[in-house]
Amino acid sequence: MSCELFDTLPQNKRFLGDSIKKLLEAAKDTTDTFEDVPFDFRHHKPKVRHEFPKEWVLTEERKKYLQEKREKAQRLDYEKLHNGELVDGKKIIETALPFTYPMAEAEPVLVGTERSGQ
Questions:
Q1: Per residue in 33-89, pLDDT tens?
Q2: Quick check: is 107 in a domain?
Q3: Whole-angstrom Cα distance, residue 13 to residue 37?
Q4: Between 20 and 30 A from 93 (CA), which of 47, 64, 74, 110?
Q5: DSSP H or E run through 11
Q6: Torsion 50-51-53-56 (CA) sign
Q7: Domain span holding position 2
Q8: Half-sphere exposure for 50 (CA within 13 Å, toward CB)
Q9: All residues at 6 or more sequence positions from 74 whose CB lies less than 8 Å from its CB, including other chains
Q10: Do residues 7 and 17 make contact, with C-beta atoms less than 8 angstroms apart?
Q11: Is residue 19 part of a domain?
C-alpha cells in the first residue's frame, strides 16, 4: 500500500497506519454477519462427482469368481505349454526374421554450390 495524499512522508505513513488499523478492526468485528451481501455464483461451476457403480464393488463372491477364472486361465496356459500349443512371440520373431547384420553403407556427402549474389 502506498499513499501520496499529504505533503510530507510522516503524514502519509500515519494515514496508512490508521487505515490498516481500521481494516484489522473491521476484520475482527464478529457482529457483522454479511447477510446483506448478495452471493454471485455465475462464475462458479459445481464440481461433478461421479458415483462408483455398485456392480463394481468387490464382494467375496466376485473375488472368488475372479480367482477361479485366473486359475483356469493358468491351467490352460500350462497345458498349452506342455502340449506345444502355446505361442511364444520371441521364438517366432527369432525364427521368422533372417539373422543378418546391417552392412555399413557410406554416408552420402552433400556437395554444395556457391550461392549467387554473395
A1: 888 889 888 898 889 999 988 888 899 998 999 999 999 999 999 998 888 888 888
A2: no
A3: 32
A4: 74
A5: helix 9-28
A6: positive
A7: 1-31
A8: 2
A9: none
A10: no
A11: yes
Q: Which three cell numbers stand for residue 117?
A: 549474389
Nine cell digits for residue 20: 490498516
Domain assignment of residue 59, yes or no:
yes
> CA Rg, the chain, in Å?
40
End-to-end CA distance of the chain: 60
pLDDT tens per residue across span 27-41: 999 888 888 889 888
Q: Which residue has the cell 512522508?
A: 9
The phi, psi pair for 90, rounded to 5°, reads -65, -40
Q: How many domains does the chain have?
A: 2
Locate cell 517366432: which residue?
92
Rounded distance, CA 111 to CA 118, Å? 18
Per the listing, cell 497506519 goes with: 17
Does 68 map to a domain? Answer: yes
With a cut of 80, say whether residue 101 has pLDDT above it: no
